Amino acid sequence: MLVGLSLRLRIFLLFAGVAAASCAVVGAALYFGYTRIPETNAASGFILAGLLSSFGLLAISVSIWLLFDENVAKPVQQLSAAIRTRTHADVEASIDLQSAKYLGDLAPAAQAVTGRLTDEAAGVGDLVADATAQLAAEREQLALLLTEIPVAIVLVSPAHKIMLYDGQAADILGQVHVPRLSASIFDYFAEDEILGAYKQLKELRTEIAVRAKGTRGNLNFQLRLKKLSQASGYMILIDDATARIAPEAPRPLIYDFDATQHFETEKAIEQQLLKDLSFVVFDTETTGLMPNKDEIVQIGAVRVVNRRIIPGETVDQLVNPGRPIPAASTGVHRITDDMVVNAPDPVTATSDFHVFAKDAVIVAHNAPFDMAFLQRYGHMSGHVWDHPILDTVLLSAVVFGAEQEHTLDALCARLDIEIPEALRHTALGDAQATAQALCKLLPILTSRGFDTFGKVVEQTRKHGRLLKDMN
Fold it and tell me: Are 86 and 118 in contact (CB under 8 A)?
């Protein structure tokens, strides 16, 4: 009924109504206290009137707060979240005009502005798409050229972090462990041997040959360290190791040259910028919902560096729980006993995942559930899971408000992320969806001033109750 009135007039009528209701309550309380004077005395009558007035005004205040929260505070929060999502995550987030109907022209104006930005961004997007396609073609040509060279190439920053590796190097590094962008080169080759060669390289400024041991197993590699002439860091050429990739297999060129800056200085994790962090986003499938009794049957994980999911740096591991998988659980994740017969046991699988997650922030959707399994297996293997952790349930609450639904499906729907039905409730599929959500949430958080890990954690702690309710 009041929607047709101007916003300023509605606000005036609201305060006029509050004033009138307050006067009515005080007047009624005074009258009732006055009628009680003959039965008691004047003091008792005034005290009664004061108490009735207090309760009445309190009731009015609560009613106004409920109305304000429902018709102003919540719509403003939803409106700001939708605007930031459209602006910073490139998502066509809908603006609910009905819920914001008491905010006057604010919601339609915001829709008009974001729509205009979307249209302009579409024009710019075409130019960016053309440039991106050209860069992709050039990168593909470069990757093809590199694969023709009979050596594997790894570029390493001065802080000994991997900045680039080609398809052949990915296969060779994978003989030690899953290759990881921005990981320490010492996770793959013996530190003392690499450092010794690097010291000679800095002194002689020439190419150094070294035979280095792999950090796992009995593998040995013939390496050549070469100083880069136009960039900081050095190149590792791996000569006599044989890559096991088929000629027709994809040979991606994986790189992040920002790794040079990310690790020049050591900062406490709380002070590090979100854009400088490496994330491992993971999910598990289990025999049931009790971490103290059930077992893992699958681990899926992807790595996010520089706000992008790194292709090829994944974990997709079936796990033998050492017990029959309940039919109800198989109905959810479609993993059967026959599928895990030859899979590693949970302690072995989580120990390998511990290496994959080294030096990264661990991210999961409802992290306490999945981390409880890792912690239990860690006690058995001796691995300490002391990684910094972010939970996308809590990140969703920070961005969209605690009163919203924060399931993975609801979060992906808000961020325009599609989870293929075949991948839903698989560990890797859910991990990839969570990683996509993380990549879209990070710029929104940064736009609100939560640009460091410490600031984000401070905000998520305000919503910790959500996880207690989920678990």
Answer: yes
